[in-house]
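Z., the sequence and structure:
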Amino acid sequence: MTAASSPRLFIRILVFTYVLLGIGFLVPSSAQEDLTSPYTIFQQIYKLESQAASAGWTASRLRDMGDLWERAGQIEYAVSYWERSVSIEPTVDLLQRLTLAYINGQMFDTALASLGQIQEMDPTNNWAIYYTALILAPIQPEAAFPYTQELLLHDTYGRTMQDLYSVLNSGRDPVYIVSEVAALYADRRLWPLAEYAFQYAAEQYAPFPDALAYTALMRAMQGKDSTERLREAIELAPESSSIRMIAGLERRINRDYEASLAALLQAVILEPTNPVLYHELNLTYQGLGSTDSAEDAEFLSQLLAGSIDQDGTEIANSESDSIYIPGLGISETALTSLSRLVEDKPDDQWLRAVYGWALVELGRIEGGITLIEAALANAPDDERVAMIAAQAYLRTGQLTQASALLTTVADSDTPYSEIAASILGIPTD
């Protein structure tokens, strides 16, 4: 099975995770030092170099020099001194710090070697067992399995190891296993490991644009450049709402709220009833300071999710039938609320078109098309409504009508022009 043909449901489970989590960049270091001014740090570096010049480099001096370079923000220099230190006098503590530096630097073969050295010195070192399991799981699930078993009941590592054990023991196809491992790492904020797992999935099961896009997002979480992988993902799947959404998240992480908004609007036009997308719109509108738009987007998100009705009243026991399934549409609870909201706002043609699209998704084609066409007749210059109408026509085989609308939108100066051009097969820069 190739990733291009496999379901991408695992991608969806991550979305609210990213919303709720703060942006933490790296696997945490075990050595946390008080902040010191760069001037003072470089004074200490100079002093230590002078001592070493006269008395020689000992393991202790090399370790201390590495610590100073770490505090100065120069981790590459720090690693070079730590490596020299452990070559003279290896200690578990410094090997652990080196391992974390290797993981954060995507040097996983080297990290496994240092973990092996730790386990030679201390065979019961649970920290080393834990990170060995995490590194092996995406690429060698069978090899990782026994490491997870050792820590199932561990106070600190048990929960993650139990979840990882369940994934590895699921008996599913390898593409699902590596995808779910990557999703688990992202959920636990292990950004470097999540990047590593998503990148492996993208390479091993190419073409896998979703995995490429999530690799980009994990890089953004660490403050790394993510543009190249995201560009590749969009080129592979320009009409993917999930990839457009990821582009919106990536831009928001980088505080480019205008670009984030454009990407999320593209995602919404491709999947107009997905509550997750409106929630993301809410967050980007907040970043732009557009309070009213943010509130409107969040209201629609919760309504489409079946959590509130058209009046904003919470729906009791809404979880029973309100789960949104990509491609299958919203629940009957949400559909009823959306219908009533459209009745309450007869002049909102976008809402009318979204309601029509919801009906089309649920197989109620005639009623859905009627609503969409009414919205288009009332708002012929609204590119959003035109895009919904075009996609509805494509679904029902009305290619001439769809092509005419898409051509008009493709010529517009809106975020939707790129999507329309892609559907028409027009190359874009």
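The two ends are 32 Å apart (CA to CA). The chain has 24 helices and no strands.

Let me know what you think.
H.
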